[in-house]
């Protein structure tokens, strides 16, 4: 019986797809997919190129004495083989990832194909580490894995030898046995102690006594949010009173004298305010924006007896200005060297008290920063009292305008 010939254009297309799936796959690739695939192949090639090259070099003749393979890589074929092999793997990985996104696979097929693609992508790195470790074992004595050194004399003593007695001439196996028993003892004691303490803290946390419950919660939150390294550092330096050696070995390990590093950590430069004028200007802009936003979100009072909200706005301005002055005083009060303790002071208590009171009356601009700080505190107190008084009189209403016009203003 002869095969039925396609009669329509759609059936002809379906027939070509069935007979040539590669052509159908190419027809589905857009320009965007093609460019993304080329970019992915390029990045994979950059990452895996050196690993593939070193792996092929380790497969050249005479590289390993113990590696007996039925084939070898010629040294002159390493460069071209690196390019072809890396590009081939990159193309297979990119095509495999595209097939995973097609959505025509069962869950089992998807998982199996994803595992194969991951193994294929990691193949250059796996081969590199395996072959390089084999090369290091043959050429570097420090990579020779053996336990013969455990039979040698330890050459040191232990402070806690229970339950075995050790001497200086014992082997490292004897000391290892003592350390193993001590570790088991500490673990068992920790399990028992933590169980008892955990039950007590847990029951206390569920207690109706607020003080007991609060103490238990504070204990749990402290140790839960405190890293173990910080806890050990605290116990080592504060409880035991040990002093850590200074970072003298990192003086040459620096980046332009700003960042220092070592196997113990990093030292970064601290932050500070170099230009106080710009800093205060930024705070002033922030406070002005706050006043403007509050003014635009405020609804006008409905009653005609209530005055317009100009007075509360002036109070906001006064409060913001006082905050600005207080910030200025806080950032400069550490430079307390002008009136309270001048260079020409005799150092007596009477002179100190006299100059302290003089700082309230001898001029605000000349006696900054402390006098500016005091002025800021005065303005904060005055504006707060004025705000409270206006609120009692009903002159400081604040209702957020959630209407479409108000939202448009925001």
Question: What is this entry, summarized?
Answer:
With 410 residues, this protein is mainly α.
SSE order in H/E notation?
HHHHHHHHEEEHHHHH
Distance between the termini: 79 Å
Number of strands: 3
Largest sheet: 3 strands, antiparallel
Shape: extended
**Count of discrete alpha- or pi-helical segments spanning 4 or more residues:** 13
Q: How many distinct folded domains?
A: 3
Secondary-structure content class:
mainly alpha
Portion in strands: under 5%
How would you describe the overall organization of this protein?
The chain is mainly α. The protein has 3 domains: 9-143, no CATH class; 147-225, no CATH class; 276-409, no CATH class. It is 60% helix and 2% strand. It contains 13 helices and 3 strands, in the order ααααααααβββααααα. It has helices at residues 9-19, 21-27, 31-58, 78-100, 107-139, 172-205, 210-225, 228-239, 276-297, 310-332, 349-358, 370-392, 404-409, and strands at residues 254-255, 259-262, 265-267. The chain has a 3-stranded antiparallel sheet with strand order 1-2-3, with no helix packed on it.
Question: What attributes does this structure have?
Answer:
three-stranded antiparallel sheet, single chain, amino-acid transport, 3 domains, 3 strands, mainly alpha, MetI-like, 410 residues
Layout of helices and strands:
Blueprint lengths: L8 H11 L1 H7 L3 H28 L19 H23 L6 H33 L32 H34 L4 H16 L2 H12 L14 E2 L3 E4 L2 E3 L8 H22 L12 H23 L16 H10 L11 H23 L11 H6 L1
Antiparallel strand pairs: 1-2, 2-3
InterPro entries: AA_ABC_transptr_permease_3TM, ArtM/GltK/GlnP/TcyL/YhdX-like, MetI-like, MetI-like_sf
Keywords: Amino-acid transport, Cell membrane, Membrane, Transmembrane, Transmembrane helix, Transport
Family: Belongs to the binding-protein-dependent transport system permease family. HisMQ subfamily.
